[in-house]
Write a structure and sequence with these properties.
Layout lengths: L29 E4 L5 H12 L3 E6 L2 H15 L3 E5 L5 H14 L5 E4 L14 H29 L2 E6 L12 H21 L4 E6 L11 H4 L2 H6 L1 H10 L7 H12 L8
Parallel strand pairs: 1-2, 1-4, 2-3, 4-5, 5-6
Length: 267
Amino acid sequence: MEWDQIPYRSTIYPEIDPGQYSHDLFKDQVVLITGSGRGIGKQLGFAFASLGAKVCFTDLELAHAQAAADEAANSTGNPALAIAADVRVFGDLDRLYCETVEKLGHIDILINNAGYGDFLTFDIARPEEYWDVVTLNLKAPMDLTRLVLPSMIERNSGTIICVTTTGAVDNYPYTIPYMVAKTGQAKFVHCLFHEVKSTNIRLFHIHPGAPATRMGDPNYAMKPYAQEAKPKLKEWVFGYLPSLNEDIRLGVWTMVYLAAGRVISQS
């Protein structure tokens, strides 16, 4: 199929319809999702919990993760764990990994979802900020995958999904550090695939669509100094981001579909 023949999707379609799954599809499987105190990550956690998984919700702020975990456990009756962690800090990732394994069991599905990128032109970008973006969007997924991978290799089983963006395969301006990091994340997935392709470990990276989440808040996505320095870019950002309102279920249930083994990873 040629690229221009690939159908555009903006909501649920038959292949990923959640109605196809049994309520115990992921029974006793452990799912760790970063950035799952809100937005796509939170809805992902709810989806996996509804299908029997034991889900670890994690966020910078424990309150967000705990609220999500409580809601998942109360609505499904399945165990859910909340852990506060700054994924930019390796020590936090190590603690997150160890605590998840201790309380829920070995991780069967890892979804590197946490991420952030802001709008500005590179001539005013501040190095300490753009390296922080790279740390969050590239170093953190690599570090957490490194922690989880040995157990998956030992058990010859597992799924790792990285949430990237169309910018990982295209060239977008005005958010260069984010796009560079996501491109690196995609390349990481493709290269790691070749290291583990003789195993039953599956790897994917995915653009989850553009639902209305915190990332779509113009004041969150463009810092005050960038708004002041680049008024024309601000005008575009403040007009464009509020228009992004795709069905959040599209990305969520696509990732469930991948984790369910309906697609064999390839590179």
